[in-house]
Design brief:
CATH architecture: Roll
Number of helices: 4
CATH topology: Pnp Oxidase, Chain A
Order of helices and strands: HEEEEHEEHHE
Shape: globular
Strand content: 25-35%
CATH class: Mainly Beta
Structural class: alpha+beta
Oligomer: single chain
Largest sheet: 7 strands, antiparallel
CATH superfamily: Electron Transport, Fmn-binding Protein, Chain A
Radius of gyration: 15 Å
């Protein structure tokens, strides 16, 4: 396993930026065709105030829902830390949410569940750490992976 340090960002490549994310965004956000639970997350920009959207893979674990930033310190992470609110969309259904960021100590079990569900898509961003990793390995990678508990706004 590669040693990990603090927060970092794994920039998406051309294919992800220009083909994969737009396709998933269109299928999920416009047509309501979710790829194994994918949604479109919209967060207001911390500087511009404009709404920015990106496909995400929410996780339901022990009755709670979570957003995991597999790529690390993304722009949506930076924006949601400021606003604490966002929208999650599938087709015509939009849900406004409030989020709470989890401390690193609470992340390992959630990361394990996330990898069990989504490793086929995001495993490459976890430096060789998989769902079968021990708690120490997951705790090490947790420093690089922001995790947010989703709380609906009534």
């Amino acid at each position: 396993m590669t040693p990990t340090s603090g927060p970092r960002y794994i920039k998406p490549g051309w294919f992800t930026t220009h083909v994969f994310n737009p396709a998933v965004g269109f299928l999920t956000g416009r047509l309501g065709l979710s790829l194994r639970g994918s949604r479109v997350l919209s967060v207001q920009g911390r500087k511009s105030g404009e709404w920015r959207s990106t496909p995400v893979n929410p996780l339901t674990f022990e009755g709670q829902r979570y957003l995991v930033a597999a790529r690390g310190e993304t722009q949506w992470v930076r924006n949601i830390r400021v606003t604490r609110e966002a929208r999650i969309r599938i087709g015509r259904r939009t849900e406004t949410i409030h989020v709470e960021e989890l401390p690193d100590a609470e992340k390992p079990a959630i990361l394990r569940a996330y990898l069990k569900e989504w490793a086929w898509e995001v495993g490459q961003f976890f430096a060789g750490v998989g769902a079968d990793a021990n708690d120490e390995q997951l705790a090490e990678i947790a420093r690089q992976k922001p995790v947010f508990r989703i709380q609906p706004i009534p």
